[in-house]
Amino acid sequence: MDPRIVDRLRCPVCAEPLAEVATGGAGALRCPRRHSFDVARQGYVNLLAGRAPHAGDTAEMVAARADFLSAGHYDLISAALAAAATEAVDGVTAARRLPAGAHADGTYPLVVDAGAGTGRHLAAVLAALPDAVGLALDVSKPALRRAARAHPRAAAALADTWQRLPLADAGTAVLLNVFAPRNGAEFHRVLDPAGSLLVVTPAADHLAELVGALGLLRVDPAKADRVAESLGGHFTEVAAAEHRRELALTGPEVATLVGMGPSAWHTDPPGLAARVAGLAEPVRVTVAVRLTVWRPTPR
Q: What global pTM score does this model have?
């Protein structure tokens, strides 16, 4: 694992720094108190302090997401995150009066994706930030297997965002949160005081054409308020923008889109397949998301 990333990790049991050690397998991370965490042969490390409350996305959901994202359908999200992250890192550099590319402690800026899934959005951000390194956090092992290979400067760790994050205080320049849970207190703790939290949530009409036709979950009309509530007291919103695009999808692509999201947990597969088969191709679908930029409140 990249030593620049390991340097920012902390033991989930005692919060001491971690160091990589050689073992008979793929290696491990160990703290001074000898708490040890094996690196899986697929490249990710398990940094849970105990058992995860749930297993996260299934292998089928992750495979669907990988197929859909690789077709470029959500690249507008990746592009928006890359632009916002570039501005955020520039802000950290300016605030600390550092040379270009340097972080608060003189090392490379760290980008963390909390709920990273396959790591595609993190990879796009790292491609735009050649001096940065990245860490994908998720509870889904199938997702982490892909995220660990998403970019040469990225690593992946099994971690529950509702628990204490296995990261150093104030050591993260940019925190990504795309369609994922938010832990305001922990996000605030790990972010550099001059850093930024980038949150992507669905807009009201996201995938609206499919909601009624296929019986999908509707976007919560109070979504923006719930995001603000989850971050209140820890962050201040400094910017917001909507990004939208119309897709022309085939029936199989629609099935893949449904299979990668939360509706996959709530739909009857045979019934869904029948409803998808009844759609006229190409299926016009609106992708509409809201990207908000949040800054930590003073400590």
A: 0.92
